[in-house]
Amino acid sequence: MIVLGSTGSIGVNTLNIARKFNLNVEVLVAGTNIAVLNEQIKEFNPKKVVIANKEDLHKVNHHDVSFGEDEILNAIENSNSQTVVNSLVGFLGLKPTLKAIECGKKIALANKESLVVAGKFIDQTKLKPIDSEHFGLWYLLQDKKIDSMLVTASGGSFRDYDIQELKNVSIKEALNHPNWSMGNKITIDSATMTNKMFELVEAAWLFGTKKLDAIIETKSLIHALVNFTDGSTTAHIANASMQLPIAYAILGRCDEEILKPVDLIEVANLEFRKIQKDRYPIWEVKDEILNNLDLGVVLNAANEVAVDKFLKSQIGFLDISKISLKALNKFNNAKATTVEDIFEIDKEVRKFCEF
């Protein structure tokens, strides 16, 4: 397989699955964490390595290493592997997804942005999402008539803060997630609830429905629920680990233990909360976005600019959602009729949000 984003949380868990099932890793693509990459190279002996920056090339312990976006696309095209695990963060992951589709490869997709911005142009026949929520929905589907689907949210770093405190929170506080440790971008997106908005857009493309919503489940043990027209609901419960959806995305099915089962006696109780718009302002536009999925590219571009500004201490935490909402208001008529339109809209929105 080809692993894009090998040193991130999803990439590391993907390699744990590769180790467990003795899978061949042909290509590793990483960013700037060269120390971890070198350990992965030593263990998995890939044929090809691609990194982000030219100045890091000499640090990589491999005979065939190159850098940059074009080299990622070349590696996908020139590889023998039929599976691409795309766990790159952000809009950067779209072109590799499109290239993998063009090459007829199977895609295990953890790059949310691919579906969020370009779902209408992505052939899903060989695509499996690596996401606890979408995996949970898929796992629950039966040959029964569905009324609606629910995914769960953790509530993010500030779910228990007084709302008045949010205007002065620090970057360090924002990155201190109560349930798990992942990359900076997704942790901030969890705190603003933008990550959950992305997941609803993804679910709309994956399952062909707009009857979608989310609720907060504070222990992150229930990942998805399906409501059937007969009035019954089923829930997918599993300990929080990406290795389960990764294993299914790569292997197709899995009949041995990947996770320790949830001990409900030990859990004792679960808490559910409504996603409040005053705490998570982005939720104001949930229905608007679900009814016009073309707005996914606008939300993603604005959010990427805003999160970057926040992490550079240029804006406050509450300004992240303000920038996204302002962009959605400005570009609310955005329509993409070709893949090229996606890149053009993305560029325009970023330019607008940079000021």
Can you walk me through this structure?
By secondary structure, the chain is of the alpha/beta class. The protein has two domains: 128 residues, Rossmann fold (3-Layer(aba) Sandwich); 159 residues, no CATH class. It is 42% helix and 15% strand. The protein contains 15 helices and twelve strands. Strands 4-3-2-1-5-6-7 form a seven-stranded parallel β-sheet, with helices on both faces. A five-stranded mixed β-sheet has the order 11-10-8-9-12, covered by helices on one side. Strand 2, helix 2 and strand 3 form a beta-alpha-beta unit. Helix 3 packs parallel to helix 4. The longest helix is centred in the C-terminal third of the chain and has 16 residues. The protein starts with a strand and ends with a helix.
Give a short summary of the structure.
The protein is an alpha/beta fold and 355 residues long. 42% of the residues lie in helices and 15% in strands.
User: Main sheet?
Assistant: 7 strands, parallel
Structural class: alpha/beta
| Helix segment tally | 15
What is the multimeric organization of the chains shown?
single chain
Tally of strands: 12
Shape: globular
